[in-house]
Amino acid sequence: MIFVLFGVSAIVFYLARGFPSAFAPWSQYITFRMTPAQIQTIIHAHGFDQPLYIQYWYWLVDVFHGDWGYSNWANGLPTFEVFASRFPFTVELTIAAVIFTVVIGIPLGILSALKNNTAADHASRIIALTGYSTPSYWFAYILQLVFFYYFYTWGLPNLPSSGAISQALEGTVPTVTGMPILDGILSGNWAYTFDAFVHVILPAFNLAFISLGYLARIVRASMLEVLRQDYMIMARSKGLPERVVIYRHALRNALIPAMTLTGLFFAGLLGGAIITETVFTWPGVGYVSLRAVFQGDSNFLLLYSLVTAVIIVFSNLIVDVMYVFLDPRIKY
Amino acid sequence: MAQQEETIVRESETKAKVAELKYSLYLMRQNPLVLSGLILVIFFLALALTANLIVNPAAASSFDFTQSYCWSSSFFSWTTLEATCPAGSGHLIGTDGFGRDLLSMIILAIPVDVSIALVIVAISAAFGIILGSVAGWVGGKFDELILRITDIFFAFPGLVLALVFAALFGRTILTLTFAVLLVWWPVYVRLSRGQVLAEKGKTYVEALKNLGVGSGRIVAFHIIPNTIYPTIVQMSLDVGGVILTFSALMFLGFSPTPALPELGNLASDGIGHVFTAPWLIVMPGLTILVIALAFNFVGDGLRDILDPRLRR
Questions:
Q1: Is the CB of B293 inside 8 Å of chain A's CB atoms?
Q2: Fewest 10 Å CB contacts: which of A186, A225, B67, B178?
Q3: What ipTM does this complex have?
Q4: pTM for this one?
């Protein structure tokens, strides 16, 4: 765990700070008005003239003091503040996407398993495979084209194609959690809540479409596995109705791997969906991290990749622990 | 003596494998999705090999801004959008951002994408098999170290690592390939390691060891051939994924030159014009989708066929 975090930070540090030919790491600290001598002073003061491993040490010390540096391109705000203000948007999008994934993916998988090797099974398999063969940027634009532009030209109610909230409504409710939908609910402003909700649909569906295929396939596979077990024959021979057999006895056990996968999706998406967020100009961390890459903001990239790594490592841990609770056969 | 006995072990392995293969081929014929995927894969590979014969690259890539264009305006004739024509204007699916025939450009782009994807998958699989099986066989400290290193790469947001790498080392096809490679290899290490660990305790490995067959020989000529199927399935599934990732990098603006015929790069011409010239994104994206789908059909079908638990 600690090793992983050190590894991640060291790799990003080496990549982002080690090659001054691409982006000067001290560019975060200088302005146009500084003289070369002043710039040299700054470089020296921040230790940028030292070897990399000493710079890494400086950075670590700063981080343990809670100082993540500054992001010049984001109005010179502290990097941590930039991240913290964007992260709730990503959380909201992630929750919405996971809800879509589960609501569509699990029934699709169950259907596929119960109607094994029929037309319904093949159809759900094609949907699943199409999901993970789809370039997400392409699908994002298709969604925008159809649900925003074509619906608009046909005079139908259309979904917004960008942003997390309409510009007219921006800043009309106090920021409590940073998540537009939750803020709207908390302040009792239903127009705002509805607007925020409408904004999240397309990007969330775009993300869900990519991942629901995996979920459906896993549910199908584990469902087929469970249906073949002896206790299913037992349940049937007890004379239980088929509905109870499927939903009580089979589904509960079959959903354990699905829960794992959902947890991992959640963790993966919390790391920010760079492409989807960029295409929908969703103001989350994924969108900002792409800008940070182009601006050469090593401070932001370090914070971002560390937070993502922590989330992924912890979610793996939680999933392992959950397994023991959910499946009594597993013992460590 | 040992050599002969080893040959006997090998023969029994081969016999089992041939029977297995025959049965697998029979199952494959029964599965319409695998079959259609396979036909599409062969079609795209053939297209990739003959693209330069079908379309003359020099003629198709040349663009002349002095021509009059569909939406030409005397003020902005240099902008990319001005050169774009919709379908039907002598071009089957319209023209791209440079006024070149989009269909020709897509045909020229297919070999670029497919070959890069194949190279990335092949290198990461080869690297992963070697490193993973050595780690699995040797075990101990070395295994632990390799595991931790793959942990680091698994904890990364994959695209970010590739993005940072590409941003730093410049935008050439080679660096972009390496950027994707950097993200892709740990999967194969884990996979091969697991396979070797599972196989290590089996009786035939014991038998070979007792015959005095060297470790390297056991791993390279017995264990790896016996456990190659999951890796092959993973590879066929990954070709699609690699094409998606690589074209996404291109799409996000890491193309070496704007005019490069690469599917993601062709699609990126359409950013900002999606409502006025949708074919710019739709067509290259659709091509990527179909290619990835073809490889995924094959991979998904292979997984069902080669996994004895799923084949019943």
A1: yes
A2: B67
A3: 0.83
A4: 0.85
